[in-house]
Design brief:
The chain is mostly beta strands. It is about 10% helix and about 30% strand. The longest helix is centred in the N-terminal third of the chain and has 21 residues.
């Protein structure tokens, strides 16, 4: 028995030595040093229709309209380029119109004199003013010829706007002086369209799949955006003032891609019935009066509105505004 116990102890020691020997394998260790975790950045650039690229605060004014007339359209084209750094999501592009500021030029007053005999009215030289001096508004007395004021002045402050079908002079009250200072001009500038084309992969060579200028964009690529959601008064026409401080969704732009944007504005003629809904002063169905029916348009002569256009690239989509019910 004693010999058996000794043999078991010898076997146990041998197994222990064998186990220790297997734990002493070869090994190797490599250390990665200087690891960093840096954030990326959104990087949006803007270019005009000539392909000139702008970044930061160097973007110039794209709208430089000085000669708009009623019922004319003015357009601009620009592209938005996403030069971001490897985001897993496709950012959303927005256009934001803001900081509306209006300018107004005081209308001149031009006095002519009309003499009416038996319903026939003619322009005559101003008669001498009793006591000398020059005629001013409000000076005319009973029996004296009536002054005819400059159209912008009449539209803003009231006066003789024209003749009715029988040749009688028609006096209107005016739509209000300081029309531009009240910043009403944007209410008469319609947004005809906002079209978007793309996105285009800018890593490709210039051509149909990557147009460098807006004129190179194929006609079929332009998508007409539905902006009826911004129709605040539900009249079916989007006015420039209705886009004030609104984030207009243009679509998604993947990294290293761009989209082209086309915006057209329209200066509207102002029908007197839109300002005096209880009945205008002229009948626009009668040719003799129809030419006077839009006399309020004269109130916006020489008016101007300035505004900023903010081009935004956002990682998260902004909730769309609730459409105005018809």
């Amino acid at each position: 028995m004693k010999k058996i116990l000794v043999s078991l102890m010898v076997i146990a020691v041998a197994v222990g030595l064998l186990a220790g020997a297997t734990a002493a394998d070869f090994s190797d260790i490599e250390v990665s040093q200087g690891n960093t975790f840096a954030t990326g950045a959104m990087d949006l650039t803007v270019s005009d229709y000539t392909g000139t690229v702008y970044n930061g605060e160097t973007v110039p004014a794209f709208w430089q309209v000085e000669d708009a007339w009623p019922c004319c359209d003015k357009s601009i084209f620009f592209d938005l380029h996403n030069e971001g750094q490897g985001f897993q999501v496709q950012p959303w592009a927005y256009l934001h119109l803001k900081n509306f500021e209006c300018g107004w030029v005081v209308p001149k007053t031009v006095y002519k004199w009309i003499n009416c005999v038996d319903g026939v009215c003619t322009v005559v030289p101003a008669p001498p003013k009793p006591g000398g001096g020059t005629w001013n508004e409000g000076d005319q007395g009973t029996g004296l010829p009536k002054p005819v004021n400059e159209p912008e002045y009449v539209a803003e402050c009231g006066g003789i706007a024209g003749e009715d079908v029988d040749g009688h002079l028609v006096t209107v009250p005016g739509v209000g002086c300081c029309y531009g200072e009240n910043c009403l001009l944007p209410q008469h500038i319609g947004v005809i369209l906002i079209d978007v084309a793309g996105p285009y992969d800018t890593s490709l060579p210039y051509g149909p799949d990557n147009p460098k200028m807006s004129s190179d964009v194929p006609a079929a690529d332009w998508e007409h955006l539905n902006i009826t959601r911004y129709d605040d008064n539900g009249d079916g026409v989007i006015k420039l003032n209705e886009l004030d401080c609104k984030q207009i969704e243009l679509g998604q732009i993947p990294n290293c891609n761009k989209i082209w944007v086309h915006i057209a504005l329209h200066l509207q003629d102002i029908d007197e019935d839109t300002i005096f809904p209880n009945g205008g002063f002229f009948d626009d169905t009668i040719p003799a009066e129809a030419k006077w029916d839009h006399w309020p348009t004269n109130a916006i002569q020489k008016d101007k509105v300035k505004f900023d256009m903010s081009f935004e690239l956002l990682q998260v989509k902004v909730p769309a505004p609730t459409p105005t019910p018809p």
